[in-house]
Design brief:
Elements: H1 28-36, H2 39-52, H3 70-73, H4 79-100, E1 109-111, H5 128-134, H6 147-168, E2 181-183, H7 190-204, E3 222-230, E4 233-240, H8 242-260, H9 272-275, E5 283-287, H10 291-294, H11 297-307, H12 310-322, E6 326-327, E7 342-343, H13 356-375, E8 384-387, E9 390-393, H14 396-408, E10 419-421, E11 426-428, E12 431-434, E13 439-440, H15 446-450, H16 455-464, H17 470-476, H18 481-484, H19 494-505, H20 511-515, H21 523-536, H22 553-561, H23 563-585, H24 594-601, H25 605-609, H26 624-644, E14 662-664, E15 667-674, E16 677-682
Antiparallel strand pairs: 1-2, 3-4, 5-9, 5-10, 6-7, 8-9, 11-12, 12-13, 14-15, 15-16
Helix pairs in contact: 1-2, 4-11, 4-13, 8-13, 11-12, 13-14, 21-23, 21-26, 22-23
């Protein structure tokens, strides 16, 4: 607790401290518990931190003004310092990447523009009113959000950006990323590929892009949006051009593969790199101010140049990411016809674009590696944890060098939010660890507790604190003491059973154990569940856009060969995925095939539930979290059916799917393969699995 309220750090709010360094706002009896130490003291600190997080429920922030966009529009004050640092860092980029990511040469970057519709927000949705004024027949689609309606406008805005880049004559345009190509890091042919790809784009694509019609008003190349996260914090993000997003998506996937191979990165598992630091004493947690907005673009450009090619780096970083205009729609009195309503990122790059986050994270790793190289030459430094702009360094010399380098890059460190400890106290990814990074005292935020009245809110709460009892879990949902007194076997309502399935899911190795009541599913139960899930995920019919959505026959034909084709291709890919599992669970495959047999042995119900999310309608109307919620409801229905089935004690017959039940003269028999022979069993006993029993016959 003393580490969290260090006297050496000035605080904007005056806090009275005791001689031991504890805030006097904490009651004396609570301070005595903390003085004693032990597990009870840890729980007391966790409770106090939960109370101190009460301010996070206040979803208010400062009023939007010029200071809100200061980190975006202000240039780097001393660019010579950044250039000097890059002259020292650039020779070390390649050897550092090969040392920390030795398999980086084998990761393919499958570049190319793919005509896949975007079901997220588009900047041109703001132009729908002007579009309806020009084409009154589109008035009935005014309130509908569809990428097919906005594709022509997105292509026209993309052409405007290309012409703007070419008019400056300082960098390569986005056309380098357009042709389909497979690149590899440190390949000597990348320079040749860039020139060839740019020529192909300028000959076959660029001249045929539609221009932006003057009657449509200002060109909608992007816009800024914001979200108030609580605690007075406002996060500004960018909604970029659809074409730029499609060009950057392969780069995003490629960079994410690199990050996934780093054991010190928390992009895919936020707590894994933190738990690696268990036992560390001297820890340095730095909080960067406006990191993505102020992180020098030059560092990201030089890194991509070393990895691939200067032309490719210029097109991806300088053109796609940096050269953009965004409408400040979050300002109340802003008008798209005024120049002051548009802004561009000067020092850094916009958060919200593909490859923005992984490229920033990778260059952040490079800076840490370079600092460690200056302290421990030739060694592989892994005593740190990094998640975007959140970092913990468990080495004093490297941490000091890191702070010096950030000062050279003119990236500010927030001293009030940073934590420097001599006893292993860290704050990383909303987690607080103490005692040599071994004890977790992370608070339960007030926001998460208030959201516990919703069943998914409670699920999120116990996912982070799995030691919550089932009775506490139900009390958070408003249940009384009589309801909480009922044990799981005596649950009455469907809601109670649904809550038990949610709570029990996190205490089992997999949800297959939850479906089996704490025991593994028998072969017949497993394959019955697999059939049920596959049948429930059967793809729906595809609903394409109506013909009157397009203002001309040429536009309709163009859509059919581009976005509509990509739309159908995604649907066919889902059909192919579903049909393969359908044949698998219904005995339509050759199980003697070694490849099929290997997939069966590794198959789990979670693999089937991890189906790709496919859009079946041309309208934007379903979110990803709604799809995931519907799939969990599917598990609840499956649990209800499994509870009504008779209990059959089966022999270990392997993972080969048995055929369905066979009914002969009113008796249910179960058939299945056993050593290439057939066995035939029947179930005896009562239907209720809690009271009855069954034997093999």
């Amino acid at each position: 607790m003393v580490e969290l309220f260090d006297r050496s750090t000035s605080c904007p709010v005056s806090v009275s401290l005791t001689r031991c360094g504890y805030p006097r706002i904490i009651p004396s009896y609570a301070r005595k518990i903390i003085y004693s130490g032990g597990e009870r003291a840890d729980r007391q600190v966790q409770l106090l931190l939960t109370f101190f997080s009460l301010f996070t429920i206040v979803e208010k922030a400062k009023r939007i003004n010029k200071e809100t966009f200061k980190s975006i529009r202000d240039p780097v004050e001393n660019i010579d310092q950044v250039i000097d640092f890059m002259s020292r860092l650039k020779p070390s980029i390649r050897p550092l990447l090969l040392r920390y990511v030795p398999e980086i040469r084998s990761y393919p970057l499958e570049q190319g523009f793919r005509w896949i519709p975007s079901w997220k927000a588009l900047p041109t949705y703001r132009a729908i009113d002007r579009l309806v004024q020009i084409f009154p027949e589109l008035a009935k689609y005014r309130r509908i959000r569809s990428p097919f309606l906005m594709q022509t406008l997105e292509l026209a805005a993309f052409r405007f950006l290309i012409e703007f880049v070419n008019s400056r004559g300082e960098q390569f345009c986005q056309g380098v990323l357009f042709p389909t190509r497979v690149r590899f890091a440190f390949d000597r042919n990348n320079k040749i590929f860039s020139g060839t790809d740019l020529d192909e784009f300028e000959m076959k694509v660029g001249p045929y892009l539609p221009p932006w019609h003057p009657a449509m008003g200002p060109v909608w190349t992007g816009r800024l949006a914001n979200v108030v996260e609580g605690g007075g914090k406002r996060r500004v993000f960018a909604i970029g051009n659809w074409c730029n997003q499609r060009l950057l998506q392969p780069v995003h996937v490629w960079l994410s593969k690199i990050l996934k191979s780093l054991e010190t990165d928390g992009t895919f598992n936020q707590t894994a790199p933190l738990y690696r630091l268990k036992g560390s004493t001297n820890t340095y947690c730095y909080d960067l101010s406006a990191a993505t907005d102020r992180w020098p673009l030059l560092v990201m450009f030089e890194t991509m140049e070393v990895l691939l090619d200067r032309s490719f780096a210029s097109a991806a970083v300088n053109s796609c990411l940096a050269t953009n205009l965004f409408y400040i729609g979050i300002v109340p009195d802003a008008s798209p016809n005024e120049e002051r309503s548009w802004i561009s990122f000067v020092a850094g790059q916009p958060l919200g674009y593909y490859s923005s986050w992984p490229l920033f994270a990778l260059t952040h790793h490079l800076v840490v590696w370079w600092c460690a190289e200056q302290v421990y030459p030739g060694q592989r430094f892994t005593s740190y944890a990094l998640l975007g702009d959140d970092i913990v360094i468990a080495n004093e010399d490297v941490a000091r060098k890191y702070a010096e380098v950030l000062s050279d890059q003119q990236v500010k460190i927030s001293k009030h939010k940073s934590l420097i400890s001599k006893s292993g106290a860290v704050e990383f990814a909303k987690r607080i660890m103490v005692r040599n990074v071994s004890v977790d005292i992370s608070p339960a935020t007030t926001k998460s507790v208030l959201g516990a009245h919703v069943i998914l809110g409670r699920f999120s709460l116990i996912h982070r604190w799995p030691k919550i009892r089932f009775s506490t879990f139900r009390r958070l949902g408003g249940a009384g003491y009589k309801t909480c007194s009922r044990l799981p076997p005596n649950l009455h309502s469907e809601r109670e059973k649904y809550e038990w399935l949610l709570w029990d899911r996190l205490r089992q190795p997999s949800f297959e154990f939850s479906l089996g009541g704490g025991a593994p599913l028998s072969p017949s139960q497993f394959w019955f569940s697999a059939r049920f899930i596959v049948d429930s995920l059967k793809p729906k019919g595809l609903r394409g856009p109506p013909s009157d959505l397009f203002v001309s026959e040429e536009q309709c034909t163009f859509q059919e060969y581009t976005s509509l084709r990509g739309f159908v291709r995604e649907w066919l890919a889902y059909q192919q995925w579903w049909f393969w599992y359908y044949r698998l669970v219904n005995n339509h495959l050759d199980y003697r095939n070694p490849e099929v047999k290997c997939k069966i042995n590794r198959l789990s119900l979670q693999d089937i539930l991890a189906a790709p999310i496919c859009q079946f309608s041309w309208k934007v109307k379903r979110l990803d979290n709604q799809v995931l919620l519907s799939r969990f409801n599917l598990l609840h229905k499956l649990k209800q059916i499994l509870d009504t089935l008779p209990v059959v004690r089966e022999l270990p017959v392997g993972r080969v799917p048995p055929p369905p039940f066979v009914v002969v003269e009113g008796i249910s028999y179960l058939t299945g393969p056993l050593c290439d022979n057939m066995f035939l069993v029947t179930c005896e006993g009562l239907i209720n699995p809690h009271r009855g029993y069954s034997n093999w016959v």
